[in-house]
Amino acid sequence: MKQFKLFLLSLILSFSIACQQETSTAAPPDPKADPHSSSQPNEARTTHLDLHLKGDFDKKNFSGYARWTIENKTGATEIIFDTDNIHIEKITLGKEEKPAEYFLVARDSVLGSALKVPIEPGTDLVTIYYSTGPNAPALGWMEPSMTAGKKLPFLFTQGQAILTRSWIPCQDTPANRITYTASIEVPLGMMAVMSAENPQQKSADGQYRFLMEQPIAPYLIALAVGDIAFRPVGQRTGVYAEPAMLDKVAWEFTDMEKMVTTAESLYGPYAWGRYDLIVLPTGFPFGGMENPRLTFATPTVITGDRSMVSLVAHELAHSWSGNLVTNATWNDFWLNEGFTVYFERRIMEALYGKEYTEMLAQLEYWELLDEVKTLGDTSPDTRLKVNLAGRNPDDGVGDVAYQKGSSFLVMLERLTDRTKWDEFLKSWFDTNKFQSKTTEEFLTFLQKNYLEKYGVTANVDEWVYHPGLPANYPKPNSARLANVEKAAVNVATVMPDTKDWTPHEWVHFVRNLPENTDVVTLKKLDKKFHLTTSGNAEIKCAWYEVAIRQGYSPEILPQIEYFLLNTGRRRFLMPIYTAFKEVGRVETARRIFEKAKPGYHAVSRGSVEELLK
Hints:
Blueprint: H1 2-20, E1 45-56, E2 61-71, E3 78-83, E4 86-93, E5 98-99, E6 103-104, E7 113-118, E8 125-132, E9 139-142, E10 154-157, E11 178-185, E12 191-194, E13 207-216, E14 223-226, E15 229-232, E16 237-241, H2 246-252, H3 256-267, E17 275-279, E18 288-289, E19 294-297, H4 310-317, E20 325-327, H5 334-352, H6 354-375, H7 399-413, H8 418-431, E21 435-437, H9 439-454, H10 460-465, H11 479-489, H12 503-511, H13 519-529, H14 537-550, H15 553-565, H16 570-582, H17 586-596, H18 602-612
Parallel strand pairs: 1-11, 16-17, 17-19, 20-21
Antiparallel strand pairs: 1-2, 2-8, 3-7, 4-5, 4-8, 6-7, 9-10, 10-14, 11-13, 12-14, 15-16, 18-19
Helix pairs in contact: 3-4, 3-5, 4-5, 5-6, 5-7, 6-7, 8-9, 11-12, 12-14, 14-15, 14-16, 16-17, 16-18
């Protein structure tokens, strides 16, 4: 199958090259060529989207049109869009909407279908009339039973990495940035919000209009529709949620304004106007998604103790690293996530102290070690700059990009001091704002504006292009977690003193319980600390995994099943289903999954199906 996909991709590229050779003004090869997009924006590119869609919650689709303003400096004779299972009704050119021919290339399992539209040198508008398929992976359709209010359905989109093409025909590469306007029609009584300027109350007619003036990558176009209410938590910050959850959400994220101010003090003004957050239904497959102006967040961060606010710091940090300066291809994904983890920790340190941040860094370092062990320390996927051609870009989403990337920046910071390093990072964001950059462009900027400027050297190539972890990897060291480990080792004889423990310490304690911890001890822990019924999803996930592996799960299986039925976040699903499978209880896992999968997003559903097949 892999060879076939590579052959098909080669065939598509060959056809495109043949078309380019017919004109003498063809552009040179694009240094930011994206292996995950069939579009060729260096030939003819989209610059602005005017989107008009109507949502049908019965059919589970959107229909309408995407009108693209295009730029054709090379005189190309066609423009190419990425699509995936979109039904094209017709395509027109120009303001006069002249009917156009078009050609859909046979679908590739990773890339979808390239849509080729012949154009003339003077063509400035392409309008694509279409409807989405009922199983579009970007669209998460939630039945009323899957929401907090249980009365109205809900819809959210997830575009990263290459899913936007399944609900909007577009040049779906982060190398090409666009502005957009949108008109979205939804059923009465529902609110629509996007990664744009947003309403703060429901409209009377179900019509909503949006504007995103700053150029963004297509994967950041986002939409949510449902029974949604808004509440401000600061001058330029606020939260959206279902009415039943709004009080809890507003309390949990009361520090959002402080976070924005703290971030600005580090790396310059916030460039997006407002910073708001929406808590989605349980089917959302990730912790958060950094859609500009409106972070999408999982309800599992609503813990009642504000212990998961680091997720907000992370998504806010993306307003600089990822949204303001974006990875040009998914092979450069670490430029988004490594920078963001570093920035997140700086925000958290400023707000909650060095000790707390060191604990977070330590936990994530151990997660990285586990991933490197699983992949193998010579695996090319342990490099920062990866090669994902012919593969799903989600294969590059892991702790290597996040943690190794962040630690690379920590290593560089320690070559001088924070003042110099912060000055450098601020200049990186300011010089390259609203642009998409490759790893090589960052390294060139780093060499000139930091290493040479301050007369320091670093093993940059080893960090970026070699597998494994370099010898000068800056290892965190948390004294608090060391004490937790001691408590875990002695748990059979001494119950721990947990008076001042954070949820992070609880998770670490559970994960470090000795492998021979018996069911009697687990029962004592559960009776004393109520771990099975914890209000924190991170603690529950760790505890349920241990319970399954140690034979305690039969007694708490109803609670584990309830959790899996009411949580769609992949981070929590995979460890629990994996534990069932590895202890020989795959049929139990399959039974629960069959009941739960209608409420899972396609991303989570596909991951669990692959695990349990």
